[in-house]
Amino acid sequence: DGEWAMLGSWLRAVTARFSYLHMKYLFFSWLAVFVGSWIVYVEYSSYTELCRGHDCKNSICDKYRKGVIDGSACSSLCEKDTLYLGKCFTAKPNSQVYSGSWGDLEGVIKCQMEEAPHYDLGNEMEPRKEAVAFNKPTKGTSVEKFREMILNHLKAKVGDQANLADLATQVLSIADANKDGHISLPEARSTWALLQLNEFLLALVLQDREHTPKLLGFCGDLYVMEKVPHSPLYGISLPWIIEVWIPAGLRRSMDQWFTPSWPHKSKISIGLLELVEDVFHGTFGSFLMCDVSATSFGYNDRHDLKVMDARYIVPEAIFQEVIRQQRCDVDEDCLYGADCLTSCDLTKHRCTPEVTRPNLAKACEALKDYILRGAPSDVREELEKQLYACIALKGSSEQMEIEHSLILNNLKTLLWKKISHTKDS
Question: What's in the keyword line of the UniProt record (predicted)?
């Protein structure tokens, strides 16, 4: 009887232990399913909220079929189905970005979506109409009148530059999408909508340079740009659940792990310095670079720098006009994008128009870790010295502009001298 009692006690203990393990297993299984389902739901919700490219396409194609708009990409997008929207890269719902294929061409498709017209320092510094009305120019507008509209718009955007007439001629050439020698009203409406976008304007201004991807085609304010094969400029993407546990210093170091050889990095860096040069008192006025981060740039197989996202490269005249109207209590209220900060005039509670840091200082800060990592010992010390002098640049006084040009030329010369004798140049 004693043995049976012991056996019974042992069986009860085993059963209790098994029940406890079973319950523990069930609890953790349920928790894993719950957490997994929540993550999938959040990811799916954010994807469906962000990625609305097909809504954008349907809206554009509806207007094309009604004869409201026309452009070089319309037929392929809406009739022949030879222009496909691929992977979604959208970061903000109002600006849809997709990879795309157009016959044999690989490109990036961008389409605008926003509800109401406004200027907002939290968004792009460009006005937006509901679903873009495409109501300008109006019926009966002559080509000469349209040219005048373009000139006035460009003047408002970049100031009264001497060669705006040449830029207007280039716009009219793009507007004639089917190259039949005539600009139809639907073609003109598409072109006018594109002219409202900073990225399109910058591509026009810098089209003779190598730093902006080529415009492949458009339909309304949906447009297709040349694909940049390598992007971002540097950095690795990690799941957010891992990201939160990595110290900032280690994260910065990890961003430089998968980068090209130093001579290739030098050529890419020279490209960014040349871009700064091109937009600083360039042919068509000055532009401010308000997001000089690695994600805004990429490069091609020849290691030529390319602008990936030009929404935050804005004409200085427009920036100053908008920022003056911004109410403020502290300097941080006067920030546009990630990098264009002015100061707050506390007597008027309005932002001042002059940015505190020039484009070059922001570019050097973005390049510092990138170009110093792996730098040859015979140039590293001088390179570091020049970069820190560059990062310290402030304001935009005449004296500062001279120093700005000197540092920019010194950096370019230092890098070119080191790589000019190599095949990488």
Answer: Disulfide bond, Endoplasmic reticulum, Membrane, Signal-anchor, Transmembrane, Transmembrane helix
Residue type, 148: E
Distance separating alpha carbons of residues 412 and 312, to the nearest angstrom: 24
In terms of DSSP H, where are the helices of 295-376?
A: 316-323, 359-372
Q: Do residues 307 and 231 touch, judged by C-beta distance below 8 A?
A: no
Q: What one-letter code names the amino acid at 404?
A: H
Question: What are all long-range contacts of 415-419, with beta carbons under 8 Å and residues at least 24 apart?
Answer: 415/266, 415/269, 415/270, 415/371, 415/383, 416/270, 418/263, 418/266, 418/376, 418/379, 419/263, 419/266, 419/267
From CA 413, how far away is CA 407, in angstroms rounded? 10
By C-alpha distance, which of 320, 197, 209 is closest to 274?
209
Give the count of beta carbons closer than 10 Å to the beta carbon of residue 397: 11
State pLDDT tens for residues 25-51: 666 666 666 555 545 444 444 445 688
Residue 57 amino acid letter: K
Domain ranges for the chain, please list them: 53-115+135-226, 262-420
Instruction: Please give the average per-residue pLDDT across 364-380, as a whole number.
Output: 93
Q: Are 275 and 213 in contact (CB under 8 A)?
A: no
